[in-house]
Amino acid sequence: MAFLTRNQIKEIVKKSLENVADFDGDIEEFPSNDFTSMHQLSKQKFLEALKTNINEHQYYNPIGQVAEGKHYDVALSIHEFSQWNNITDCINYIKEYHTALWNE
Amino acid sequence: MKKRILLFAFAFINLISVAQITTLTLKDFDTKINTVGSKSIEVNLFFNFPNKYKDYIVDEGSINNVNSYLLIGNIKKKITESPINKGLKFSLNIDIDKLAERLENISLNHQIEIEKDIIFDIWNNNQENTRIKIIITNNQITKWTKNAFNKLSKTQKEALIKEKGGAAIISNNSIDIGHVSESESASGNAEVNVKFKYQDYWKNSSKIGYSFEGLLSTNSKDSLNYFSAYPFISNFGKLGGKNSSFDIIGKVGIEGNQAFTSWRFSANVSIQGIIPNLINLTAGENRLRLKPVVNIGIKYYTEVKNNRKVVTDNEISNQFFSDFYYYIPIHKTFSLTLNGKAFYDISKRINPDKKINYNFDAILGMSIAKGFKTVFKYTKGSNSVTFEKGDFFSIGVLSDILSGINQ
Predict the structure, then answer these.
(1) What is the CATH architecture of A6-102?
(2) What is the pTM of this model?
(3) Fewer CB atoms < 10 Å away: N or C end of chain A?
């Protein structure tokens, strides 16, 4: 393991979306307009929740065991949000760019 | 004996496979910024994985600790290296107070250097017997990262500065052009109107912004037309501590009707945040139901000119106000966007009936292309400066321009 799986990332995004929206179904199935129509304040709150949830997610070592000493992180900004057309783009971005850092 | 030779040969071949060391070439690199929490910039190096290893990823736990530095001229800054799925990342924290200076510095010749070779494994789906050891040397890192941060775009650099103050100042910048038919217009002529809102930081400031907004039309006397300009907007912090969902916003400026036959100076303090959903019109369809954004506050104003027929003296007064943004998905493809404002003036001369006045846009649309909707719009209510009432129905195209950061 070590890096987050796509499913784990999708759960983090889903949890973060709950701060700014309600929904029931698959978060990757929403019309893209619903996602891109977020007020700037909602985008900021969503990104802050995303950052916190990624940083606080349990770290797994390469053989899939829960481990201490590291945390996950990814660069986020409203500028980057504006490049995403939908939630799938958000998940794919985190998958490609997230990393594991040593705790300070 | 034969068996022993075979076993020995098998073990030897395995040993070589596990121990094979190679390097990778650079496929691409890019730069990203982080403005949520601490501010940083990063360069991401993506490696060419040979075809037979195309499904491999970096084993995150296998990378050795090296000391990495960003060299700008003869200045050395500590930079953090870490793995990503298909490569390496180098992140530089940016001190907020010296942000502009730091961005200026990295426009000079720079490169990243490492004190020893970076060694890590790549593997396929966490399978131990697929490990390949990779070495990346200082020469490679130096070559690949030479002036890498020059790739930061103008909009990324602006975002680093502008996103410091939070979302209060980065608003939904928008422009909406509408057409009102002869039968619907107050003048009896076909009219074109434009509703707009724009907010941004002052140059070199991360705390003070400005905005202007309005509804203007070819009929300058339309009762709902207005124009506001606020040269000072600031986010004073969160209500109730750093984990609060609500921000305290201050604004100072002028507000008037289109012809400025009525206008005033005003100073507002308000609380802006997200509240629970009020309604569900999806009928079970899978839609993202965004929660409403509200802004509630108090305004102090002093009139300079008014166009009232009675109570003609210029007033000094206060108003309680609330504005809201609510995007409501309807069934499978439609959406209703409500932008509105309610206000209560405490002046007994201006508001003798003690009424709560309001104005709102209700925009029904559907997606046809990214950022554009074909809309039917209904606008109704009272002008918040002159209190004149009006309404109109228009057909136009809604586009969000410069939403958030200049593109």
Answers:
(1) Orthogonal Bundle (1.10)
(2) 0.83
(3) C
